[in-house]
Design brief:
Distance between the termini of chain A: 12 Å
CATH topology of chain A: Rossmann fold
Radius of gyration of chain B: 17 Å
Shape of chain B: elongated
CATH architecture of chain B: 2-Layer Sandwich
CATH topology of chain B: Mth169, Chain: A
Distance between the termini of chain B: 7 Å
Largest sheet of chain B: 3 strands, antiparallel
Shape of chain A: globular
CATH class of chain A: Alpha Beta
Number of domains of chain A: 1
Number of helices of chain B: 2
Helix content of chain A: 10-25%
Radius of gyration of chain A: 16 Å
Strand order of the largest sheet of chain B: 2-1-3
CATH superfamily of chain A: Class I glutamine amidotransferase (GATase) domain
CATH superfamily of chain B: Phosphoribosylformylglycinamidine synthase subunit PurS
Strand content of chain B: 15-25%
Oligomer: heterodimer
Number of strands of chain B: 3
Order of helices and strands of chain A: EHEEHEHEEEEHEEEH
Number of domains of chain B: 1
Number of helices of chain A: 5
Helix content of chain B: 25-40%
Strand content of chain A: 15-25%
Largest sheet of chain A: 9 strands, mixed
Largest interface: A-B, 20 and 11 residues
Chain lengths: ~230, ~90
């Protein structure tokens, strides 16, 4: 199953994603430079973390005008799996493929830490192998991960089962102490209405090897392989 | 050449942590009665004079300069007659 990792000027988790897919998941993957216009035969597309265009203006604001984003948008509209990690999530909200926005962390500090996440839905291709309420450990590293949307949008997200992950403590409690960045309702990741487009601030690609502190992120990649193979 | 001044700030009701930090710093400097501080962006744009200039600026703000989910914007035209000549 072919994966594509989009590379913007300033992406810096592209190689982590590539490694996770190629060496750990053992699936074919290639980099797609942002100036390209086609995704080829890619079945799964990943927008990686980093600082595309140096976060100029707002994180993710400029990358959405890259030529490849037209093909990425078409891929999403066709209902195929698209994952935005960290800066990739910011790019998805800026481009309107996911609702809401990611503001500066409430603490104004860049946060680099391991966090606990509660999976809220198994209906996305990236969480179909994870049970709702399951607790996973992943890494975060961001300065602008403070999820915000208006109250109407928040109600829609809840109603349509579009909240994918929340920050929790090790016991699975959603509370302000387990919220690393001030996100509304401890939201760490969401999906679009259809469920095929998922964005999250934590880094599943950095949690694919026990040597690096955990393998929980691999569950997301294994989920999408299972989903695409079975469909 | 006309120059536009674009101000981008967080919408009312959207918490501005940076503004909050500056407010706290002003208080600790001894300035009493600073109730609210909003930190935003200021963008200067020089552009060709056309009939659509305001409509174009409006679209620039909507599509790129501001994120309408969290930000408001205000467009002003710089005074072109300052010092009796165009700047």
């Amino acid at each position: 199953m072919q994966f594509a990792v989009i590379v913007f000027p300033g992406s810096n988790c592209d190689h982590d994603c590539y490694h996770a897919v190629k060496d750990v998941l053992k699936q074919p993957v290639r980099f797609v430079w942002h100036k390209e216009t086609s995704l080829g035969d890619a079945e799964v597309v990943i927008l990686p973390g980093g600082f595309s265009y140096g976060d100029y203006l707002r994180a993710g604001a400029i990358s959405r005008f890259s030529p490849i984003m037209r093909a990425v948008t078409a891929h999403a509209r066709e209902g195929r799996p698209l994952l935005g990690i960290c800066n990739g999530f910011q790019c998805l909200t800026e481009s309107g493929l996911l609702p809401g926005a990611l503001k500066r962390n409430e603490s104004l500090r860049f946060v680099c830490d391991d966090v606990w996440l509660k999976c809220e839905t198994s209906r996305t291709p990236f969480t179909c192998g994870i049970e709702p309420e399951e607790i996973l450990k992943m890494t975060i590293a961001h300065g602008e991960g403070n999820y915000f949307c208006d109250s109407e949008t928040l109600a829609t997200l809840e109603e349509n089962d579009q909240i994918v992950f929340r920050y929790v403590n090790a016991e699975g409690d959603v509370n302000p102490k387990s919220n690393p960045n001030g996100s509304m309702e401890n939201i760490a990741g969401i999906c679009n209405l259809q469920g095929n487009v998922v964005g999250l601030m934590p880094h599943p690609e950095r949690s694919c090897d026990s040597l690096l502190g955990g393998e929980d992120g691999l569950r997301m990649f294994m989920s999408v392989v299972r989903k695409v193979v079975s469909s | 050449m006309p120059k536009a001044l674009v101000y981008v700030t967080f919408k009312a009701g959207v918490l501005d942590p940076q503004g909050e930090a500056v407010r706290g710093a002003l208080s600790s400097l001894g300035f009493k009665g600073v109730n609210d501080v909003r930190v935003g962006k200021f963008i200067e744009i020089e552009l060709e004079d056309t009939d659509d200039i305001l409509a174009d600026l409006e679209r620039m703000c909507q599509d790129l300069l501001a994120n309408p989910v969290i930000e408001d914007y205000r467009i002003e035209m710089a005074d072109e007659s300052a010092n009796g000549k165009r700047r």
